[in-house]
Amino acid sequence: MKESEPTSTPKHSPMNPPGEHHPDGAFDDPLHDWWQKNGKSLIAGAVIVIVGTAAVFGFRIYRQSQEQSIQIAFNEAVSSESLESFAQENAGYPLGGVAALQTANTAFENQEWDQALANYKIAAESLKGNPLSGKARLGIAVTQSEMGNNEEAQKILSALANDEKSFPASRAEAMYFLSLLSLESGDYDSFSQWSSKLAEIDQIGQWTAKLGYYEDRTPLPVIEVTSEESAETASTPEATAETEAAVEVVESTTDSDTASTPETESAEPTSPAE
Length: 274
What we know:
The protein is an all-alpha fold. It has helices at residues 30-79, 83-89, 94-109, 113-126, 132-146, 150-161, 168-185, 188-201, 206-216, 227-234, 237-259. Among the domains are: 51-148, Serine Threonine Protein Phosphatase 5, Tetratricopeptide repeat; 165-216. It has 11 helices and no strands. Helix 3 packs parallel to helix 5 (132-146). The chain is elongated.
């Protein structure tokens, strides 16, 4: 009976890597250990990303369907001439702002100032960030002016004219109205200020030309001088010297005219027969 040969330690090979043995005979795997520690958090993060992406796309689909329904309602309001009720029901949406702006313009043409002002305010709030927002703000200011609130109108117009984020055309129109208000009130310093700014921003020259039309037809201010002011002016040494010089010129002119005129005796005309 042959003696059993001693067992030798197996050599390491790519198919037989070194490592510690588990009780069940499996080697330690670093990737397996890492997955055991972090796998659950990765799965949870992936689920959050998937849910978030689904929510974003779902919200977009909802907004698109909502905008389509608002567009349909807007078209129906235009055809049925019920834009005012549509604007009130859809305040905060761009189409609601457009409807409010159209309603306000119609009320302004009919001189219904309260209705115009209310709808211009709805339009301004609903059209924030839209170029039409400037038109709504202009409508508020001009309506306030028509209602006799020129100070409030000037505040709104000044804010719009100095708002560099607003559309340049709206800013130019605000400067035009500010120039007109200054011209009507006789504030020529403010008029000069706003008309100069208008000339810089009004590239097309539309509002500058309109302003020039009214400026040419506005009478220049007449400076009234009181009797006290005229007396004080006349009593100054400069005025006295000018008066004396004028008198001397008049006297010398009179003397020269008298010396150059010949003295003639009056005689009755005689006939050729005599």
